[in-house]
Specification:
By secondary structure, the chain is of the alpha+beta class. The protein has a five-stranded mixed sheet with strand order 2-3-1-4-5, sandwiched between helices. A hairpin with a 2-residue loop joins strand 2 and strand 3.
């Protein structure tokens, strides 16, 4: 059989064109295939371009193996060269054109989406920052309220100094620390002289005001961060002095006495003087910290009653 190169090239033309038409029709019209591939129009064009290019090379490969079976190798190679020279640029142009158009189509469709996605992400990020800021603000507010609530539960509402519960917690903590560190702990117990007479004579509102002013005077003399003035009950106050020895505590007790006396609050029914005064007792832990903080308070209380017996408006040391 004699092969005419023109006939062979015509057959190849028909096959290549038919494959391109079939591929184009399949990917453009067959809905189930499009749904199964889940690709956009831009991706379809890219796939079509790749299929056309692959089809050409497939035909080229088949010819490379089939033609030598039916004709001399030299004639087969000539046909192959004609195929590449005549049709490679056409197939390449079509394929590259489909791919380029598909890429352009994809970019045109994806670019606005990318911009929108970026805007959405920026808005979501801004919203998230606002929410985090709001949550942080709420957290800080809750923390402030919690601290304020703790303070309110440990503060005497009338005088503004530490209340009895606050005293109990503080003195126990300071006692345990003093035992660990082998440092002294001093307490000053004080009582407003003849305060019942003051209330009976001037009335309870005036008595409340007197308590406030006495508490402020006591607090004004506290300079160390660890020292605490507490209202023990009624007209009695306790001062906790961590790390203070007996001499330092006695010196501060005298300053407290003078601070109250300098208020010069009228007290005509006092049997000590004509103004409000206080009696104070000082107690300090032993070096070996025997006993407990309740016993230490009892010592300060006993010393305070010694001051009362001695005429009031003075300091006694246990």
């Amino acid at each position: 059989m004699i092969w005419d190169s023109k006939i062979i090239m015509t057959i190849i033309d028909i096959v290549v064109i038919a494959m391109a038409v079939v591929a184009t029709w399949t990917f453009s019209k067959n809905k189930w295939l499009l749904r199964s591939l889940h690709v956009s129009s831009g991706l379809r064009l890219i796939v079509i371009g790749l299929i056309i290019l692959a089809a050409f090379y497939l035909v080229d490969l088949l010819i490379m193996f089939i033609f030598p079976l039916f004709m001399p190798m030299k004639e087969a190679m000539g046909i192959m060269n004609d195929l590449h020279l005549n049709y490679m640029w056409i197939v390449s142009t079509i394929s590259i054109g489909c791919i380029v158009i598909g890429l352009v189509y994809l970019i045109r469709r994806l670019f606005p989406r990318i911009i929108k996605l970026r805007i959405d992400l920026e808005e979501a990020h801004a919203d998230l920052k606002d929410e985090l800021s709001a949550l942080k603000s709420v957290e800080q507010k809750l923390l402030r309220n919690e601290n304020k609530l703790k303070e309110l539960t440990l503060i005497d509402q009338l005088t503004g100094v530490t209340n009895r519960r606050g005293y109990d917690l503080t003195v126990e903590s300071e006692w345990n620390r003093a035992r660990r560190t082998r440092t002294p702990l001093s307490l000053i117990m004080l009582d407003i002289d003849f305060f019942k007479n003051y209330n009976d004579n001037y009335g309870h509102p005036a008595g409340d005001e007197c308590l406030k002013r006495v508490a402020m005077a006591l607090n004004s003399k506290i300079v160390r961060a660890g020292d605490v003035v507490a209202r023990y009950g009624g007209e009695e106050f306790v001062v906790i002095l961590p790390g203070s020895n007996k001499e330092a505590a006695a010196t501060l007790a005298e300053l407290l006495r003078q601070a109250v006396e300098s208020l010069n609050i009228e007290h005509k029914v006092s049997k000590a003087t004509d103004h409000v005064t206080v009696s104070l007792g000082v107690a300090t832990t032993a070096i070996n910290h025997d006993g407990n903080y309740k016993a230490l308070l009892l010592e300060a209380d006993t010393a305070m009653y010694e001051a009362k017996k001695a005429g009031r408006n003075q300091v006694k040391i246990a």
